[in-house]
């Protein structure tokens, strides 16, 4: 892919500048490098292959050549620290919306940052932040979406947990148009952050999460818990009624993993 393929996206912020690479260690690393060089908000880093793509808690993201959309977006949302979690939320919403509306797939968000289809992960979203005091100064939104990743290419230990567009639709996907559609979705939702329309974001996110009332198993700070989801908030976290009937709030950044029973 080349930069001129992504001109005239019709977006307001996201994708005004797009840098595309064949092979990188991590698109997030390149995004931070671009920030140090004075890159504008909305700049997008795309790669055909990531050698050391990363997810939450430093986990490695499997990102082979031609297998998906591996990208990072430079953002400066002007949010107080207590609202900073909403950036990861709109990233997950944008992916979910893309899959639902453009591909007709039953995509849902697995709180806090994975997008799933029938219990298998198709996308992950992370956010890295640089702070000045308690105010987020710059953010890098990293997104991995499995597109033309074939079942035979998925490591054996991940075959039951991971899926892709080509597996779900049985058809190869033209990546360029998918990138354009995704950046359009992301731009629309990022505008809601700029407009402080957190109500719309929260309402859509809760609908896409579909976790309220579900029995879950999860781990927080290395300790395992079991209970029923009472409420979800994109910034505050997840409220769960534990087995002793106490309702406890868990923030997303401290939850290692969560599974529906």
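^ Assign residues to that structure.
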């Amino acid at each position: 892919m080349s930069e001129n393929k992504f001109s005239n996206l019709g977006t307001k912020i996201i994708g005004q500048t797009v840098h595309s690479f064949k092979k990188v260690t991590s698109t997030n690393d390149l995004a931070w490098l671009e920030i140090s060089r004075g890159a504008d908000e909305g700049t997008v880093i795309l790669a055909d292959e990531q050698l050391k793509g990363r997810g939450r808690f430093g986990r490695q993201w499997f990102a082979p050549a031609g297998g998906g959309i591996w990208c990072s977006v430079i953002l400066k949302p002007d949010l107080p620290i207590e609202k900073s979690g909403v950036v990861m939320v709109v990233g997950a919403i944008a992916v979910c919306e893309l899959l639902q509306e453009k591909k007709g797939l039953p995509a849902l968000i697995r709180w806090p940052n994975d997008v799933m289809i029938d219990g298998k992960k198709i996308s992950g979203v992370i956010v890295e932040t640089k702070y000045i005091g308690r105010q987020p100064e710059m953010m890098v939104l990293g997104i991995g979406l499995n597109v033309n990743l074939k079942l035979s290419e998925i490591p054996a230990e991940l075959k039951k947990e991971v899926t892709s567009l080509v597996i779900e639709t049985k058809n190869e996907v033209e990546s360029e148009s998918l990138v354009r559609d995704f950046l359009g979705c992301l731009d629309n939702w990022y505008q809601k952050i700029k407009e402080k329309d957190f109500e719309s974001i929260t309402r859509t996110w809760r609908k896409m999460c579909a976790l309220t009332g579900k029995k879950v198993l999860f781990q927080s700070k290395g300790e395992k818990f079991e209970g029923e989801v009472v409420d979800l908030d994109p910034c505050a976290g997840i409220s769960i009624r534990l087995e002793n009937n106490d309702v406890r709030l868990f923030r997303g950044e401290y939850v290692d993993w969560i599974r529906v029973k």
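DSSP finds five helices and twelve strands in the chain.
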